[in-house]
Design goal:
The complex is a heterodimer. In chain A, about 45% of the residues lie in helices and about 20% in strands. Chain A is of the alpha/beta class. In chain A, α2 packs parallel to α3 (about 60-70). The termini of chain A are close together. Chain B is an alpha+beta fold. In chain B, strands 1, 2, 3, 4, 5, 6 and 7 form a seven-stranded antiparallel β-sheet that branches. In chain B, α2 packs across α3 (about 85-105). Classes of the chains: A alpha/beta, B alpha+beta.
Chain lengths: ~120, ~160
């Protein structure tokens, strides 16, 4: 499987990569994007099976990315990994078509809980 | 809609402890230890990161730490030796720390509001002022013996019930 990690922080992309490994998701191909616009292009060219995206990014936010994907008819599995985990944000994410929202800080167990149903 | 007008001290302590426990004190032996306010000398090298919240609640969440603490944050988050973290890594790491704490603070205050991207400043000493805002809660901590302060400032019309 191919997973696209979109976050403007290289540090956070690294943490997400490490957490995927700690949660037992080894052997997947990982692709990185530094903002929503880059992620949108990469979803088209790389055709990932799952997008893990930050919410707050320059150029194009995570929610704008998700809405652009769905508006273009792309149904790729999509989950947010963001510092903002309020009920309001979760509702907005779900309404736009996100499968889950993982709030930072997170643990490997949190990743397993949310990713297992998607990657199974 | 949230009913809280400002985060409480215990909220900030819980959020900060959660961030430390997840990423900076995974083994539980290097917690952020609360202590007395740190007095910066004029030439001390410090790194600060701020995220701002705007909208129904206005304020800032600020991390201020020694340059050494900032390098240690980068090293811990990137799982690198301290001397291998670049300046960009350090700015990214401390900014992400502010983003994580700020995002969680935002979840506690009135909505709708928006969280800014982090801004990171390196400077000698500590000479920050936040016009139109006042401190509503603060943690003066030490991490591995290095000063780390976490502050929440609210607009002067916020934070008062």
């Amino acid at each position: 499987m191919k997973i696209l990690i979109a976050d403007d922080s290289r540090v956070m992309r690294q943490i997400v990569t490490r957490t995927l490994r700690q949660a037992g998701y080894t052997g997947h191909e990982l692709v990185e994007a530094a903002n929503g616009r880059e992620a949108l292009d990469l979803v088209g060219s790389e055709k990932p099976d799952l997008v893990l995206s930050d919410w707050n990014m320059p150029e194009m936010s995570g929610i704008e990315l998700l809405r652009a994907l769905r508006a273009g008819g792309n149904a790729v599995a999509f989950g947010f990994v963001t510092s903002e985990g309020s009920a309001e944000m979760r509702e907005m994410a779900s309404a736009a078509g996100a499968a889950f929202l993982i709030a930072k800080p997170f643990t490997a167990d949190t990743f397993s809980d949310h990713l297992d149903p998607v990657l199974a | 809609m949230s009913t809280l007008v400002a985060p409480f001290q215990e909220d900030l302590e819980a959020i900060t402890a959660d961030v430390w426990g997840s990423f900076l004190d995974v083994d539980g032996d290097t917690p952020l230890v609360a202590g007395a306010p740190h007095r910066w000398a004029e030439h001390d090298a410090t790194t600060s990161a701020v995220v701002s919240i705007t909208g129904a609640w206005q304020g800032h969440v600020i991390i201020e730490c020694s340059a050494r603490a900032a390098r240690m944050v980068a090293a811990a988050l990137l799982a690198l030796p301290e001397d291998e973290a670049s300046e960009d890594d350090v700015a990214d790491a401390v900014g992400e720390l502010a983003n994580m704490i700020g995002g969680n603070v935002k979840s506690l205050v009135a909505s709708p509001s928006a969280l800014s991207l982090p801004h990171v400043v390196t400077q000698p000493g500590s000479h920050q002022s936040w016009p139109g805002a006042e401190e509503v809660c603060r943690i003066d901590g030490a991490w591995n013996g290095e000063a780390v302060t976490v502050m929440v400032y609210a607009g002067v019309n916020e934070g008062k019930s």
